[in-house]
Specification:
Helices cover 42% and strands 15% of the residues. It is of the alpha/beta class.
Length: 288
Amino acid sequence: MIELHCHTTFSDGTLSPTRLVESAVMAGVRAMAITDHDTLAGWDEAREAAKDPDLYDRLSQPSFSVSQPIEIVPGLELSTVYNGKSMHILGFYPDRDKLSGPLMERLAGRKRRAQAMLDKLEALGYPVELPPMGPGMAPGRPHIARALREAGYVKDSREAFDRFLGEGMPACVDYEKFYASEGIELILACDGIPVWAHPYLFRGGEVEAVLPKLVEAGLMGIEVFHPSHTEYQQEKLARFCETYGLLMTGGSDYHGPGAGHHSGLNSQNVGMELLEALKGARSALVGG
């Protein structure tokens, strides 16, 4: 089985890329996409971990031989807006050299947003600080929620979102305006495959009305299989893919243990054929 939506400590996951790879192997995952928010920084560590023969010996997984290591799929999850609401666009197999420069501004925007939320919290009487972050790490609301919990202001991250950080709450700051069409265009310009992440979590319009506009902008796929989607919604999205000639993807949106996100690795039972279709589309995109 494959996982096409996972996060590490380089964005809002709780596992390092190495630990995530170990967990994926233990869960029976054969290929996994690293899709951190607005950063590519976790790719290298994940790839190195996946190539380490000692990992497979250490985990005592006889079905995973050195000749068949877990495959790491390069990806990211872009933070964009549509109709004034947050929309996430997954990108698979982008050209790193082409994408790294434009992503620096996206990372800078995330840092400005995080600082604005910290300033709001301080004005409300709840000062907190984020731990130091490397240049490739993407700060977000889960990091601030964790800081609030560690400072004793809330009992858990859910309370932090309910009181302070959720949409409409007093410390929430909207994403800087980077429209979904711009995100799709950027991924395509970097030879990647743009995919709409978890469409039924979007709060800015009905999927039926929004999807044609995204397809017009160049969208190539939909994340059909996601823990937030009901079976009926999955079937509906699969029909949309057939109607518009779009690729299907899926994953657990795994953020690690204790992150409060959805379900465990390999929970969506996504078959390898979806990855092969992605690879084929990417080859066609770049002419080879």
